Amino acid sequence: MTKNIVLPAGKTLFGPGQECAGFVEVTRGSIRVSMTAPNGREIVLYRVKPGDVCLQTLSCLIEGSDYSAEGVVEADLEGRFVPKSAFWSRMEQDAAFRTDILSAVARRFGDYQRLVEEVALTGFDTRLARVLLRLQDEGGVVYMTHGELAAETASGRAFVSRRLAEFAHQGLVELSRGKVRICDSAGLQRISEEDR
User: Fold this and answer.
1) Is the pLDDT of residue 19 over 90?
2) Contact by Cβ (8 Å): 73, 99
3) For the whole model, what pTM was predicted?
4) 10 close to 74: Cβ distance less than 8 angstroms
5) How many CA atoms does the CB half-sphere of 145 hold within 13 Å?
């Protein structure tokens, strides 16, 4: 049976090598899904927010495989947990649920296409500017370390630090421990559009 869940930020939902017990329908909050290479380098694959689907989970349910990525609650989460057997019953019998899942998969596939494009075809400064603009809060602040920004941009921490220092030198951002304040949003926007 489906059950309601409430999970705090920081809670690990799944990790590499773990079996998938079921499907989480997110109604509030978000899950950050990432992969880490043997050398410790991490890349954020996507975030699961209300209405989204976790492709890792769906893949594990369909193929009967274990997880290859990690899912961590990024913002306090509320939702419903659908056990594996109930998931398949709903897919077979509930047309609205099936349509929602397939629509979410199509949207997520678009996210993957954008990720590949960003990593393979976009210059680093453009990627970094896009990430900063996307992750800023209402006050224009991104609360992330350089290491976390490296995971968001599929890069190394030292390279992120060098480019952020250059952005700061240009007056685009102001750097302090664990956060980046955007000072020139229009300037970052121009950089974010350079490779289009």
Assistant:
1) yes
2) no
3) 0.71
4) no
5) 6
